[in-house]
Amino acid sequence: MKTTHKFILVRSAYRAIKLARGLFGLGTRCEVTRDGLRYDLDLSQAIDLTIFVFGRFEPSTVAAFRRYVKPGATVLDIGANIGAQTLQLARLVGPRGRVLSFEPTAFAFAKLRRNLQLNPEIADRVTALQCFLTGGDPKSFPASVYSSWSLQPSPEAHDKHLGVPMGTAGARGATLDGVLAEHSIERVDLVKLDVDGFECDVLAGANEMIRRSRPTFVMEILPYGLVEQGASLDQLLNFLIPFGYRLYNERTEALLPSDAAALERMIGEGASWNVIARAA
Predict the structure, then answer these.
(1) 63 CB neighbour count, 10 Å cutoff
(2) CATH number of the domain within which 192 lies
(3) What gap in Å lies between CA 103 and CA 129, rounded to an integer?
(4) What angle do CA 212, 141, 110 make, to 5 degrees?
(5) What is the pLDDT averaged over residues 32-40?
């Protein structure tokens, strides 16, 4: 399903929930416990509302984490936003595991930190970094990237995925290999990668990590987003295929084509897929 179609459904739910809460004098901001985790939510945001209603964000991704993340693992959440998946990962890695959580926008990073504060029993397993990962000049990165999926109309909303850009003030640029060296991390077991078209930028700075660890990737593939950032699906696959990676459907684990054109036809115009990439 295209993001625009999903948004129509979520906006309808938002209007109904906002009306119902208003009858009891309640606003759109709330603290709730869902799936055993505590969240500070703004129900006018699509990610937050999804957690409020369904208990978690992207349940098929959470199911993939449960299959692949073992206690004691080191995992990365790249494109962490409010921390919906960071919290899930922190719970799965256990007290001896470690999560590095990357979010470049001040808007989402503040929400990520707040949600970690609300879960002190797992927060010490997480290192949250306001960082834009790149393979190029670390001093040159966008002044804003998409990190708000507001359920209220915005003239700044992307015409396909409907995200609203938020500022990256306070972030630093770095390569992933460089950050891992700074934190003395020699092995990575799993990477969640969801950065709306900047995937090639991230992977261009992660060659050493891929070569050394060959981690499992749980990632979004957004062909039009890659093109918007000057990359392509073919370029993305070329970061992984030479290292023996194969792509699989996140839900069914069915093997997917390694040919960019064939995969793009399957995904369809204006849509995205969540996939698993595993090295043989």
Answers:
(1) 13
(2) 3.40.50.150
(3) 6
(4) 90
(5) 97
